[in-house]
Each structure stands twice: as C-alpha cells, then as structure tokens.
C-alpha cells in the first residue's frame, strides 16, 4: 500500500488507536521495572527481565550503550511499541539519570501523555518535580502511579496531600490501596466499588494473579483493610477527588493508581487506563499556530538524534514522531529546514537493541530513520503540504569545559566528532573567535554529558581529547550590541551557540547580579524551559 491507499478516515482511525507516552520519575522509582512489566502484560516478551536495564540483569531491550550497562543506568532513549486491547501503545523511554535531563525534556516534546511514577516511600523527589514542571509547561496530561506499595512507605492520604501541595494538581485516584504500604493486598476500584485482589507469583516474573469481587466479598476477605480503604475513598469523594475527563486533559487533575511494578500488581489497570482515558494522537500545532490535522499528508518532527548506539549498527539514527498522515518506508519527504528531499529507505522501528524494518507508521508512532546525517533535533519533515513544527528548546547549561584534541594530527576527526555531538544534542558546543575552532567550549546540563562526549570522541571518532573545566555556572542569553560591554567585565565571557543564541557566562549568581547592577540596560535573559 502507498500512503494514498489509506483514506482520511482510516488514518483517523489509526491515530485514534495510538497512545504515545513517557514515564517520568526520579531515578530508582522503578521506571525500568514498570516498562518491563507493561511490556510483559502486553505479552511482547515472555518473561520479565528482558527489558530491565540494570547491570547484572539479563540482556536489555531499552538500554544499550556499553556505558549504560557498566553503570546500570539508562542513557539513550528508546521507543517501545506494543499492542494492547486493539490499541497501539508507544512508550518512549527517557534517560534515568538526572544528568541527562536535557534529553528527557526533548523526549517530552514527542508524547501526548506522561506517567509520573512516584516511589511510595519517598514521595515527590527533585527530578520528578523538574520533569513535572516541563509537562505542566507543555500542557501534557499526567497520570500518577504510586509505585512500591509492597514496601512500607508514606500514608496514601498524605501522598495525595503532597501532590496537591507541590504540584497544584488535584489527585483523583482511580484505585485505592487495600492494605497499608508494605501490606499490599489489592485495590478498591473507585469507579464501581469492586475489589481487585492481587496474588504474588514467584519473583514477580510472570503476570500476577488478579481476582475481582464485589464489596461484600471484599469485606469478608479483608476485614478492616477493606473498610479502611472504603472510608478513605469516601473522604476523597467528599473532597470531590473523582476522575473528571475535562480537568485531566486540561492538566488540572491527575488520575492516580497504586502499583508494585516489581510484583506486577496494578499493571493491568495502568494499561487499561491508557486505553480508556489517555488522549490518542491528535492534531499538532505548527510554528504559525495552526493545527496539522492527523489526516493531513505525512508530517513529523525529529525529537532525538543518536549515533554509535551499538557496534553492530554504527550509524546515525533520527527518531521522528509522526504527527499526521501515513509514513511509508521508501517515501521521499521534504526536510523543512533546507527544503531538500529526504529519502526514507532505511526506516526502522527501534526496539532497544533490536531493530525491525518498519514499513508503515501512523500519527503517534515513532520511526527511526537510519543514516539521517542531514537531520537535527527539532527538524520537521513533510509530504506535499509544507509544515514546520515549533523548535524544541535548548536548555541552560550549568557546566562548562574546554575541549581539545590530544593529537593535533587528528584534528579532522576532532572537528567531525564535535559537529556530530552538537547535531545530536549530546552536548552544547559554544564558540568564540577568541577561543577558535580548535578549543571550543562544551556546555552541559549535567556533568555526565561530558563523559559521554569524551568517550564517544575517543571510541567512535578516533579523536582522543582533553577536557578542562571552566569556572562558569550560569548562562544568560544576550545580544550582539552588549558584547563589548560584557567583554570588559572580569570573569564573564560571551560565546555563540550553534543555534545562533549568544550566551554570556558568569562564574556565579553574585557575579551576574554585580554586572546587572552596574549595567542595568544589558540584555541578560534566563534561558527558560518552555
Ligand atoms: P529506575 O528505572 O526508575 O531507575 O528504577 P528501576 O526500575 O531500576 O528500580 C529501582 C529499584 O527499585 C530496583 O531494585 C527495583 O527492583 C526496585 N523496584 C522497582 N519497582 C518496585 C516495586 O514495586 N517494589 C519494590 N519493593 N521494589 C521495586 P534494585 O535493588 O536497585 O535492583 P534489583 O536488585 O531489583 O535489580
């Protein structure tokens, strides 16, 4: 079939079947475990363990770089697709380590929903809050999952209070735990008052047993644990903390579920909730503020570019979120940034380490375009009717290092490597005439980005480097006219970023405030996350 063989109605139906989301959480809240459990339930994989990214576990699906395996953290983003109840679920994986939050922020531009995963014993942690802010800014609806209920933790009502206090969103639990944290017996389904009892299976490696019964049977079986759950649920009812579609989609409320990812408790409910209430792929707003309807000709945008993921596939992969129309492998699309044609001969669906050739994709899906050296993060692609989607913002770097080639005869490789890392958004590359091309400055949101850059320069581009720390911690956007004034200030430097932004770097807040006081007319704007 070619894209023209699909009627607009068929495309709309396919878009309606898609749920594209990411899980945001603080490291260790259980994101990899939940990913694995969701895939297990959708029966993509036979036994839990196959997608888990921790060192020492079996081979991983969503984590792939050697460094990731060594450290047991997830650095690169993978897209996982599976079907559940005739719905196509696209789970976009995000890096687990806080140092890669820049990457995570970008990934969030590709999803229609996020699941905020909270460790029941820890509540809302710093990284969860940062990511939450980005979702809120982007108006992405959020479903909250309280994980690790099998372990002693914070009281359920207290957790609800914390959500209200710290996020401003009203939690509207869909399920309520029966048994305190540490004694997880099952959940009260608040919509119909039934009880789903969970049964452990060996090591949580297979789907947990679930039995649903009415309230009377539940009370007989669980006694006080059941009546407590009912009382607390009634309290929520009094506070009007019930699910409401409109306020959920508007980001004012967050449906909540309780789970134990490691025991596979509550995972079915999460999948059912995705199918039942998560927004399907819908029209995307272009740079001019007009919606690109899902049944318009093909369009998509690059939210991640990655290379060197696997020594068997030494190439460059651009992840594209399909926004409208049908994507068909082999199709020649237009690259909006250059107006040039782009052939998609090598489209693949990426399932962690394994790649499958993909032939057709619909709005909400993610395709990996191989050998995509012309594509940058944020670029739009389209067929027939031109469209550009709003650029994905770059974030304010807080760590800076000068990078130089160790061996001057490798300068060509050095340049190529730097350019590549810059394109991929692995690190921000900052330049000035004064420093020249041989010693650019690298800017990072988290210092671990430097390690990835250094490692890749050496192993992938064959250009060993030295890195030297600079004593700046704050960047502000400035303008050309202000450069001469800033250049006269001590401990201040102005550099160009490759997206054209001029960044003034300061050693610390006090230095910045000093300069602002002395020259109140200078443009020194914070780089905000939008
Ligand atoms: P992350 O991707 O968010 O960083 O978290 P990950 O899934 O790797 O989980 C972090 C730790 O929390 C793991 O333990 C994992 O087994 C555990 N965990 C995840 N979900 C649950 C849960 O529902 N209940 C309990 N009790 N633990 C959970 P670990 O000791 O770091 O690794 P491992 O020894 O289990 O491999």
TrEMBL record:
Q: Does the keyword Nucleotide-binding apply?
A: yes
**GO molecular function, one example?**
GTP binding
Q: Name one Pfam family in it.
A: EF-G_D2
Query: Which Gene Ontology BP terms does the record give?
Result: regulation of translational termination
InterPro entries for this protein: EF-G-like_DII, EFG_III/V, G_TR_CS, P-loop_NTPase, PrfC, RF3_C, RF3_dom_3_sf, Small_GTP-bd
Question: Which residues are GTP-binding?
Answer: 93-97
- Main location, first listed in the record: cytoplasm
Q: Which SUPFAM superfamilies match?
A: EF-G C-terminal domain-like (SSF54980), P-loop containing nucleoside triphosphate hydrolases (SSF52540), Translation proteins (SSF50447)
Please explain the role this protein plays, according to its UniProt record: Increases the formation of ribosomal termination complexes and stimulates activities of RF-1 and RF-2. It binds guanine nucleotides and has strong preference for UGA stop codons. It may interact directly with the ribosome. The stimulation of RF-1 and RF-2 is significantly reduced by GTP and GDP, but not by GMP.
Q: What is this protein called?
A: Peptide chain release factor 3
Q: Which organism is it from?
A: Brevibacterium mcbrellneri ATCC 49030
Gene this protein is translated from: prfC
């Amino acid at each position: 079939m070619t894209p023209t063989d699909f009627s607009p109605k068929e495309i709309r139906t396919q878009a309606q079947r898609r749920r594209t989301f990411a899980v945001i959480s603080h490291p260790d809240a259980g994101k990899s475990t939940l990913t694995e459990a969701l895939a297990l339930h959708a029966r993509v994989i036979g036994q839990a363990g196959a997608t888990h990214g921790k060192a020492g576990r079996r081979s991983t699906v969503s984590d792939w770089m050697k460094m990731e395996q060594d450290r047991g953290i997830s650095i690169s983003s993978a897209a996982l697709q599976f079907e559940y109840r005739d719905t196509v679920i696209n789970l976009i994986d995000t890096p687990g380590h806080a140092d890669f939050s820049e990457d995570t922020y970008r990934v969030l531009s590709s999803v229609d929903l996020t699941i905020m995963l909270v460790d029941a014993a820890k509540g809302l942690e710093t990284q969860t809050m940062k990511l939450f802010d980005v979702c809120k800014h982007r108006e992405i609806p959020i479903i909250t999952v309280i994980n690790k209920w099998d372990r002693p933790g914070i009281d359920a009502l207290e957790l609800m209070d914390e959500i209200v206090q710290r996020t401003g969103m009203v939690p509207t639990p869909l399920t309520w735990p029966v048994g305190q944290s540490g004694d997880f017996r099952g959940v009260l389904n608040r919509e119909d008052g039934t009880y789903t009892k969970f049964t452990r299976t060996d090591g949580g490696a297979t789907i947990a047993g679930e039995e649903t019964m009415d309230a009377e049977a539940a009370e007989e079986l669980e006694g006080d644990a059941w009546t407590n759950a009912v009382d607390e649920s009634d309290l929520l009812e009094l506070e009007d903390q019930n699910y409401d579609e409109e306020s959920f989609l508007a980001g004012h409320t967050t449906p909540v579920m309780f789970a134990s990812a490691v025991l596979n408790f509550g995972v079915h409910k999460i999948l059912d909730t995705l199918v039942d209430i998560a927004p399907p792929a819908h029209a995307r707003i272009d740079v001019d503020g007009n919606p690109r309807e899902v049944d318009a000709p093909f369009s998509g945008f690059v939210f991640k570019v990655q290379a060197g993921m696997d020594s068997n596939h030494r190439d460059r992969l651009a992840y594209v979120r399909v926004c409208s129309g049908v994507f068909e492998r082999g199709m020649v699309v237009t690259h909006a940034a250059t107006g040039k044609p782009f052939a998609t001969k090598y489209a693949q669906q990426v399932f962690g380490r394994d790649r499958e050739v993909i032939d057709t994709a619909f709005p909400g899906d993610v395709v990996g375009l191989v050998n995509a050296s012309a594509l940058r993060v944020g670029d739009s692609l389209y067929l027939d009717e031109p469209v550009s989607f709003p650029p994905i913002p770059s974030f304010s770097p807080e760590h800076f290092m000068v990078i130089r080639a160790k061996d001057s005869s490798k300068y060509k490789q050095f340049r190529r490597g730097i350019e590549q890392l810059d394109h991929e958004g692995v690190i921000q590359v900052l330049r000035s005439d004064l420093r020249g091309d041989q010693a650019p400055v690298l800017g990072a949101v988290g210092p671990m980005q430097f390690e990835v850059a250094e490692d890749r320069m050496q192993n992938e581009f064959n250009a060993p480097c030295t890195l030297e720390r600079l004593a700046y911690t704050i960047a502000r956007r400035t303008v050309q006219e202000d450069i001469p004034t800033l250049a006269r200030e001590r401990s201040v430097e102005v550099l160009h970023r490759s997206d054209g932004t001029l960044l003034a770097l300061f050693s610390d807040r006090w230095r910045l405030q000093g300069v602002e006081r002395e020259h109140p007319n200078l443009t020194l704007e914070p780089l905000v996350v939008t």
